[in-house]
Structures are given as C-alpha cells and as structure tokens.
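Pinned message: reference record for Transcriptional regulator
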Amino acid sequence: MKDSSLTPVKLMPHPQIRDQVFQKLRRAIITGELKPNERLVERTLAEQLGVSRTPIREAIRMLELEGLISYLPKLGAVVTQVSNEEVLEIYRIRSVLEGLAARMAAENITPAATNELMKTLGELERAAEQRDLTGLEQEHRQFNDIIYQAAGSPRLYGMITTLVDHIQRYARVGYSQPQRIEEATREHRRLAEAIKAQNGALAEQVAREHIDNSRKAYFQTLANRPIKSHQTPKVD
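Predicted structure (tokens):
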C-alpha cells in the first residue's frame, strides 16, 4: 500500500492518536489515494503511521461506521466500493439538499460572505481555464462551503458535507465529458449571481440543475467504461 499522505503521526495520548489516524485514513479514502477495494492491513498501516495496531484497529471501526470501510471474507477490511445505485441516490439527495442550502444562503448571506463567494468564484474560474483539476476541486469545495455556511443551518450543513465526502472520490469522472468543466463553471457563476442578488428561488433552481447535470455527466462517462458488477442506472 503506497500513499504519500500516510506519514508517521505525532505521539500523543491514545484517543488523540486514534482520531489522528482516523482523519488520515479518511482523507486518503475521500481523495482517492486509497482506492475502492484496496485492503487495509493493520500491520502495514501501523508501520507507515508509526503507531501501534490498536489505534489503527479502532480507526478502521470508525470508518466502517461511516460506510467508508467494509469487511470482506478472506480479505478483511477494504475501502468500500460504492455501487452505481448508491451514487445515483446520493446525487438525487444532494440535488434537494443543495437546492435548499442555496435558497437559504440567498436569503441569509452577509455582504462579507458575498464578497468571499465572488472572490472564490474568480479563483475557481481561473483553475477551470487552466484545466487545473486539483485547484478546481479545492476552489469548488471552498465555494460550496461558503454557501453551506451562509445558509445558517448547522444540521443541513452536516447532512450535505457527509454526502459530499462520500461522493468526492468520484467527482472527477464527470469532468472527462467534453465541455463539462466549462458548463459547470458557468453554472457556478449563475449560482453565485443568484445568491448575490438574494434571489432564493433562482438560487435553488440553479443549484439543483447543477447537481443534476453533474449526475448526468457522471453516468454518461461511466456508460462508456466497462462495468464489472453493476449496470449503469437510467438517469432520466
């Protein structure tokens, strides 16, 4: 198992070690550094992270509760492979929740947050123009986070970010569709302008359209790839 993010952790009291191991492994899964169906071997991870196997074992249990890790016969703990049906379900739920977040953000956003949103949009557009996928993902997360925070609903924020974390490792797939980066960037500008104008109904409509278009791009890309165990669900 090779992963640049899995470097030794700083020694500290046990609960903190476990939590730090958990965060390192979680981030490696979400970013795709640990691939779906990749085995998590306690001994190997303990050596990589410079800790005992106990916090590794506990962190893996925590990841299992989040659905990021599964146990397979004869293999043990592996990174969960999310099925096409589960991805479809997540996109559909996100469409509703992110539409609500956009509407609430438009109704509640402060001038300072609006300025930050437009500034981040500019950085996102620059990354898109340069085809910088890593920078684009970073600015996209920041752009979304500003909107989620501006909605002013901690419960909604938690629900959306959990869904986003589960699908983030698949996010680049749709960008391989011709012109999808340009289309998505225009959708982000429309969304930012609607929120800036405090037009809640329009913001909700644009946010839902954006998620739905991302879903379609994902499955259109997937339809052109060999699928081992699941058929591509009908997207509309």
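Pinned by admin. Summary line: Confidence is low (pLDDT under 50) at residues 227-236.
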